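Table 4 source record.
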Amino acid sequence: QVQLVESGGGLVQAGGSLRLSCTVSGGSFSEYTMGWFRQVPGKEREFVGAIIWIGGSTVYPDSAKGRFTISRDNAKNTVYLQMNSLKPEDTAAYYCAASSKLTPGTYAYWGQGTQVTVSS
């Protein structure tokens, strides 16, 4: 059974930084593309970025480019989301998700989420 556990959320002032972590157990972490998503109650889930399982390349939406960085440590089965220059509109529950190399684009496994609150 694959499990994802996020950590690192909290309250931060606008302009500050946070680093979220997501540790995966029970699966082949090195063969997963890992994605980060966020969601505000009443709104659709938003893609924040992903790191590809092979080569380590990353993709980000425009809202995250230049402020957010995703990295991974395969030895620790952990993916990170470094968030800088945070804005109040970044307030959301942040989720990590895993997509197997066998089913690219399908995030079959999800964490429980960690709350990020950015105060103005």
